[in-house]
Specification:
Layout lengths: L1 E4 L5 H7 L9 H29 L6 E3 H11 L2 H20 L5 E6 L2 E9 L2 E5 L8 H14 L3 E6 L9 H9 L4 E4 L2 H10 L9 E3 L4 H12 L5 E2 L7 E6 L5 H12 L6 E6 L2 H15 L5 H7 L4 E4 L3 H11 L3 E5 L15 E4 L5 H6 L25 E9 L1 H17 L3 H14 L1
Parallel strand pairs: 1-12, 5-6, 5-8, 6-7, 8-9, 10-11, 10-13, 11-12, 13-14
Antiparallel strand pairs: 2-7, 3-4, 4-15
Helix pairs in contact: 2-7, 2-8, 3-6, 4-5, 5-6, 7-8, 9-10, 14-15
Length: 431
């Protein structure tokens, strides 16, 4: 973990201190993603199967979730099933409350302009997996999509090491109203969703987080002609913690490790005005690492970690706004006072009791959040992610008489005579 005194750095030094891990933009990775996407785009199912066998260990399969979900319910302890059901209910409750309302405004007497919302037609959901079944991500994606009214959802996830779909993912799918999941992962899954391959049909939008390969594949396909929209740049996880002398050292260390264990390309940052706290947290991390099952992954991620000494917590918020973290925790004595200062973060966890883990699983808001600084302009997944807005205008004869002449004048000011004549024609109609 690198120790940094923020006030001894110039602007270039500060930018370097907040740089994301280099492996997220490695040229070999970018070339590899392009090759996979082009292969699936040009050769479809055949290429998808070839790549999946090589990288996933098996060809893609469409798995009906009902039998595996029943297996999970029968084999899991009752409290584990109840915890998943609680998470699903909280997510559904929160996103039901976030559905936007249609708006109607009479801008001129007789001229009514409305904004109405419609669901995206066909959505692809990517659920990270592999060694660990990240079933929570399926809940966080599929439930808001269902609440928004999306009728066609194609869910994909890498097969588990032993092959096939993990029963926990199947149970999450059932709780989310998903009947089947495709077992295919990585950039090849993103390419299949983007352009279609075999029975995996092309989707209008791809949502979900993933490793650097998945994040780059999403970015690439969304930039290609005919490619889908994406929810946001959502790659390897990030957490920044702002802590003062009142913070609990063990809890701060645990929070940082909770994100470091995700991926070797994850990044965690601690900013504090207390040198004592920075040192104590660093030691606590070393102690907690010893019995952490994913110690090797967390240890690798900590190579990109930062311990930043700042003048005060207000300056720490300035650092956070510059970094724009996926997750921001405020472990300070008066956290509510800092919230109005935060401009750039995917999700904010206020106070010592607001563990980022709660947001990851069952607080209600989605844990699919922008990474790599995208929080400066992007929001996390919500019902809005799966909706699009249309404007609708209706015009009475009275309104047409009022607005046709100034509209034609504005069009002629721009040199667009046909536009002007279209406005003039409405005057003739009402005459």
């Amino acid at each position: 973990m690198r120790r940094i005194d923020w006030n001894r750095l110039d602007e270039r030094g500060r930018q370097a201190a907040l740089a994301r891990p280099e492996q997220r933009a490695d040229e070999a990775l970018l070339e590899g993603v392009r090759a996979i996407v082009e292969a699936v785009r040009s050769r479809g199912w055949e290429a998808l199967c070839d790549i999946a066998r090589r990288l996933d260990g098996e060809a893609p399969k469409r798995v009906d979730v009902a039998p595996l979900a029943k297996e999970a319910r029968d084999s899991l302890p009752r409290d584990q099933v109840a915890a998943m059901e609680l998470a699903a209910e909280n997510i559904r409750r929160f996103h039901n409350a976030c559905v936007p309302l249609d708006v109607a405004v009479e801008t001129v007497r007789g001229l009514n302009v409305r904004k109405v919302w419609r669901p995206v037609g066909r959505v692809g959901l990517y659920v990270p997996g592999g060694k660990t079944p990240l079933f929570s991500t399926l809940l966080m994606l599929a439930i808001p999509a269902r609440v928004a009214g999306v009728s066609e959802i194609v869910a994909t996830t890498p097969p588990r090491p032993a092959g096939g779909l993990h029963p926990l993912v199947a149970l999450a799918a059932e709780l989310s109203g998903i009947e089947a999941v495709w077992t295919v992962g990585g950039a090849q899954a993103i390419a299949a969703l983007a352009f279609g391959a075999g029975q995996i049909g092309k989707v209008d939008k791809i949502c979900g987080p993933g490793n650097a390969w998945v994040a780059e594949a999403k970015r690439l396909v969304s930039s290609m002609p005919g490619g889908p929209a994406i929810d946001m740049p959502a790659g390897p996880s990030e957490l920044m913690v702002i802590a003062d002398e009142t913070a609990e050292t063990a809890a701060v260390a645990a929070d940082l490790l909770s994100q470091a264990e995700h991926d070797v390309a994850a990044q965690v940052i601690l900013a504090s005005p207390s040198e004592r706290l920075l040192h104590a947290v660093e030691q606590a991390i070393e102690g907690q690492l010893r019995d952490l099952p994913r110690c090797a992954i967390a240890q690798a991620a900590l190579g990109s970690a930062r311990l930043i000494l700042v003048a005060d917590v207000a300056q720490a918020v300035d650092v956070a706004n510059a970094y724009a973290p996926e997750h921001l925790s405020l472990a300070v004595a008066e956290p509510d006072a800092l919230v109005p200062l935060v401009r750039n973060a995917g999700a904010v966890f206020v106070g010592r009791l607001a563990a980022e883990t709660f947001g990851d699983y069952l607080a209600g808001s989605s844990h699919v959040l922008p990474t790599d600084g995208a929080a400066r302009a992007w929001s996390g997944v919500s019902t809005h992610t799966f909706l699009k807005a249309m404007s609708v205008q209706t015009v009475t004869p009275e309104a047409a008489r009022t607005i046709a002449e100034p509209a034609a004048l504005l069009a002629r000011m721009e040199g667009l005579e046909a536009h002007a004549r279209a406005a003039d024609a409405r005057l003739e109609t009402v005459a």
